[in-house]
Write a structure and sequence with these properties.
Helices cover about 10% and strands about 35% of the residues. It has 1 helix and 9 strands. The strands form 3 sheets. It has a 5-stranded antiparallel beta sheet, with no helix packed on it.
Amino acid sequence: MKKKSVLVAILAASMGFMAAIEVHASTYLTTAPKIVKIVRTTDTYTDEARTHRAKVLHAGDFAHIATEITLSGKAPLLETTSKTYLTANTAYVVKSNGYQNPKKYYQV
């Protein structure tokens, strides 16, 4: 039964229907890492309500995170340094150290 409710929540989120859902700490990043790696293709949004898509991030891409945002009754979001928002769901993003070029600049 639990798998079914999670599937419904993911399906509703992917279709743009963001209702109040129960958030489990094990399925979402609860603290903002500096860099995340995208595991599955996901959209980024220009607003916290996730109504305006900014761009698509594909598996293998990296994102530099500024902060983690939790809205009342909604799933947590990660705000990037470019002021776009993406899901904090661990099925889509994982914490990463990124990688560095020879001059020691972080590549994101």
